[in-house]
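Predict the 3D structure for this chain.
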Amino acid sequence: MFAAPPAIGTTLLARLPERFHITGRTSGRYANRKFYLEGPALARDGTFYFTDVPWGRIFQITPDGELSLFLEYDGEPNGLKIHKDGRLFVADYKNGILAIDPKTKKMEPYVIQVANERLRGPNDLTFANNGDLYFTDQGNSDIQRQRGRVVRVRANGAVEIILADIESPNGLVLSPDQQSLYVAVTRTNSVWKVPLEVPPGLVGNTLVGTSGIFIQMSGGTGPDGMAVDEAGNLAVAHTGLGVLWLFSPLGEPLLRVNTCAGLSIANIVYGGNDRKTLYIVESATGSILTAQMPVAGQTMFAHMD
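Done. Predicted structure below.
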């Protein structure tokens, strides 16, 4: 065990206005939820997007601070990332991976099946520097139903399962050198580190045999969204505990970020002029929080030339 790291706090940036609260759903995964926020993403022009899973909504906050509804549709949008061409890519639990033109708001399916099977329920996604897309196909998976998967979509359109039989894969992010993929496995309260090149002699095309637990967490529910900074440090949202952790590239805890809202920290993204502002979505209270971090976040694919 490690000694407790130093702690910092957060600041409330915005909260979903009451006019956007919805009632009436009394059954299903999100029964009695007025909202459940997820999927923060920052566009090149500074527009901040986030999703509302149960009600199929995507919101935006303009650089001058105006919060508005960007899009509403029949779906369950969770993770959201932005392509360098400006399109919004959404991991939709109900509809698969969707691509949205931010100007026309036209929505198109990008991936709806893999290995001749419909997706089980995408949760989050991330882009590699070369344009490859990785996403978690979480579905109804847990310790008893180890059915979760990680899927890679090559920039040329080829789709492949690279990890299978996982207990609820959630957030995911690449290391700065693009050689490893970190996967938050919520129901085992752990973060996996997955090498992206299969060692010689490994039979088959799966990376499962070479993956391992990088961080074993405790308390709360488990890790959710993640982000990486320029030094290779890994920021992990610990949902159910109301804490965000910063780990070194060796897995040592460097910093604890205590949130000023609820316990359901869902996802995170680096931004700001110096990329040292970490934006944190707290799902249950509908809050967007910020924390000032010591190292700038890794440049996102959306902001690359």
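The two ends are 42 Å apart (CA to CA).
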